Amino acid sequence: MTKPTAKMQGMTLLEVMVALVIFSTAALALMNSVSLNVRFTHGLADTLQASWVAENQIAQAKLENSAFPEAPQRGSETMGGRTWLWRVQRIDTGKRRFADEVQVFAEGEESQPVLALRIPDPEEAP
């Protein structure tokens, strides 16, 4: 009499490797998505703080009832634990129309503004 052969159960090495490839691909896609989300959120926080700095400059000019200068005026403000550099100026937008402009830069990154607001004069707005 022969012994009945026991049926093997479990996964082969090839099946385990295929499962690992599928899992690692999904994990990499998830990590990429999370990384993009964190980068976007950080950029959004910078833009929000820069907008507050710009709005502070506009509010300060309105409170003092003073016009923006023709030549660029620069300054800095600390907000959110960071120093922000700002530049205000009255600019000619063409066709004898003028606007007040506020540009806000992150400290150490003065080549590109984080935010630029341009506010046309109400009586000159189209």
Largest sheet: 4 strands, antiparallel
Structural class: alpha+beta
How many β strands by DSSP? 4
- End-to-end distance: 102 Å
Helix content class: 40-55%
Which ranges are low-confidence, i.e. pLDDT below 50, for 5 or more consecutive residues? none
* Helix and strand run: HEEEE
* Outline type: rod-shaped
Report mean pLDDT, rounded to a whole number: 87
**Number of helices, counting only DSSP H or I runs of 4 residues or more:** 1
Report the portion of residues in β strands: 25-35%
**Spatial ordering of strands, largest sheet:** 1-2-3-4
Based on CA atoms alone, the radius of gyration comes out at 29 Å
What labels describe this entry?
4 strands; alpha+beta; 4-stranded antiparallel β-sheet; single chain; 126 residues
Task: Describe what is shown at a glance.
This protein is α+β, with helices and mostly antiparallel strands.
Set out the fold topology.
Elements: H1 13-64, E1 73-79, E2 82-94, E3 97-106, E4 115-120
Antiparallel strand pairs: 1-2, 2-3, 3-4
